[in-house]
Design a protein that fits this description.
The protein is mainly alpha-helical. It is built from 8 helices and 6 strands. The relative contact order is 0.13.
Length: about 220
C-alpha cells in the first residue's frame, strides 16, 4: 500500500492528489503495530530497544509535523481574518454597511508564514525534484509553480482568502460567510459573467492594501487582491 501513491504517479502521469495519500498515517500506524507484535513474540532485548527507538522517532516526527502545520494554519487564519476585517471596515466606512462587494485578483499569504512549503527555483530541493520528474514530463511541476517558488506542500500553503475567492460556483461567497461569522454585514453577487467583467475592470487596479485597491464600479464595491 505504501507504494500506491508512487505507482499512481506513473499511471496518471501526474503527482497523486493529497486526498489520495490520506490513508498513509493509518497504514504506518498499522505497520508499527504489526512490528510491535512481532517483537513481543520474538522477545529479543536488542530488537525491542531498536523498535522503541524507531517508534519514538516516528511519533516525534509525526507530532512535530502535525503541530507545526496546525500552528501555521492558525497563524494564516489569524492573518487572513485581520486582512478581511480591515477590508470590511474600509468598505463599511466608505460605502456603508450592506455594500455589495466583488473580490477580484488572487491572494497569497505572506512568504514568512508559508516559506516552509516552498522550494526556490534555484534551490537544491527543486533540482532534486526536477531530476526525479523531468524524465517523465518536464511540465509536471508547473501546476505547483508560484511567485514564491515550487510548492511541494500541496494545498497547505493556501489561505482562507485564496480558497474563498473562487470556492464552489459562487466566487467570493465564502469570504462573505467568513465575515458574517465575525460580525460584518457585507454582501456579494453570484453572477459569474458579472464577476468576469469585474475582473477585467480590476486588472489595472492596485492590489490590496495599496491605495485605490477598493473602488466603486457599476453599483458594486470592487476589492482587488
Amino acid at each position: 500500500m505504501i507504494l500506491i501513491p508512487v505507482i499512481l504517479t506513473f499511471v496518471e502521469l501526474k503527482p497523486p492528489l493529497y486526498r489520495a495519500c490520506q490513508y498513509m498515517p493509518f497504514f504506518v500506524a498499522s505497520a508499527v503495530l504489526l512490528l510491535y507484535v512481532l517483537m513481543v513474540r520474538r522477545n529479543r532485548r536488542g530488537e525491542k530497544i531498536a523498535f522503541a527507538a524507531l517508534t519514538a522517532c516516528l511519533v516525534w516526527n509525526q507530532a512535530y509535523e502535525s503541530n507545526y502545520n496546525f500552528y501555521t494554519d492558525y497563524r494564516k487564519y489569524e492573518y487572513d481574518r485581520a486582512v478581511l476585517e480591515e477590508i470590511a471596515r474600509t468598505v463599511a466606512r466608505e460605502y456603508g454597511n450592506g455594500a455589495e462587494v466583488i473580490f477580484t485578483g488572487d491572494y497569497l499569504p505572506p512568504y514568512e508564514l508559508v516559506k516552509r512549503y516552498y522550494a526556490g527555483f534555484s534551490s537544491g530541493e527543486f533540482a532534486k525534484i526536477a531530476f526525479l520528474t523531468d524524465w517523465l514530463d518536464p511540465h509536471l511541476k508547473e501546476k505547483y509553480y508560484s511567485p514564491y517558488g515550487y510548492s511541494f506542500g500541496g494545498e497547505a500553503q493556501y489561505s482562507v482568502i485564496h480558497w474563498g475567492l473562487y470556492a464552489y460556483d459562487s466566487p467570493g461567497m465564502e469570504l462573505m460567510h467568513f465575515l458574517q461569522m465575525h460580525g460584518y454585514d457585507l454582501k456579494t453577487m453570484t453572477d459569474l459573467e458579472l464577476k468576469e467583467q469585474a475582473e477585467k475592470y480590476a486588472a489595472e487596479m492596485p492590489r490590496w492594501p495599496m491605495a485605490g485597491s477598493v473602488a466603486e464600479w457599476n453599483g458594486y464595491v470592487v476589492v482587488h487582491f
